[in-house]
Design a protein that fits this description.
Blueprint: E1 11-13, H1 20-33, E2 44-51, E3 56-60, H2 73-84, E4 90-98, H3 120-133, E5 137-140, E6 146-149
Parallel strand pairs: 4-5
Antiparallel strand pairs: 1-6, 2-3, 2-4, 5-6
The structure holds tetrahydrodeoxyuridine.
Length: 163
């Protein structure tokens, strides 16, 4: 029997080690958490996309009293990007999450220490654009460590792409 192995090279570093342009994208994702509407979960997620035209498009999670009607930050961002700039490739996405910390004094304290990874539905939505326009690098920010993945496909092997 043939065996197939899936390997992903994930880079891990601290925020300070990222190139300046990636730090900027992470900063935009962190800033976007402030625009989340998350009165139910109180979990504020921000996503920032670097577009091929140099623009940065952000999104945040938007919840709803009818809970499933809300939308994650990543999908809010990528749908906004595609409807603002149809046909323009997404090159990178940075994601950050924030929760009100016990100690409010340090503004950084609310950000998750470890990287936050997109849910299955968002992976599926993102991979659609990856298939259309090419690789989207994924930067998952955490206060203590940040992961960089080469593509959405590396987060979603065997994603549904065709019918
Ligand atoms: N959420 C995101 O925005 N992105 C994800 O990848 C996972 C979860 C949001 C959805 C909901 O508003 C809150 O986080 C708690 O699940």
């Amino acid at each position: 029997m043939k065996q197939l192995e899936i390997k992903t090279l994930i880079k891990e570093c601290e925020y300070s080690e990222l190139p300046e342009s990636d730090r900027r994208l992470v900063d935009e994702a962190k800033e976007a958490t402030r625009r989340a509407y998350a009165p139910f979960s109180k979990y504020h997620v921000g996503a920032a996309l670097l577009m091929d035209n140099g623009k940065i498009v952000t999104g945040s999670n938007q919840e709803n009293a009818a809970y499933p009607s809300g939308l994650c930050a990543e999908r809010t961002a990528v749908f906004y990007a595609s409807s603002s700039y149809p046909g323009v490739a997404v090159r990178k996405i940075a994601i950050a999450a924030w929760q009100k910390p016990a100690d409010d004094l340090d503004p950084e304290a609310g950000f998750q220490a470890h990287p936050v990874s997109p849910c299955g539905g968002c992976r599926q939505a993102l991979i659609e654009y990856e298939h259309l326009y090419g690789n989207i690098e994924v930067i998952l920010y955490g206060r203590e460590k940040t992961f960089i993945l080469p593509s959405v496909a590396s987060l979603l092997p065997f994603g549904f792409t065709d019918f």
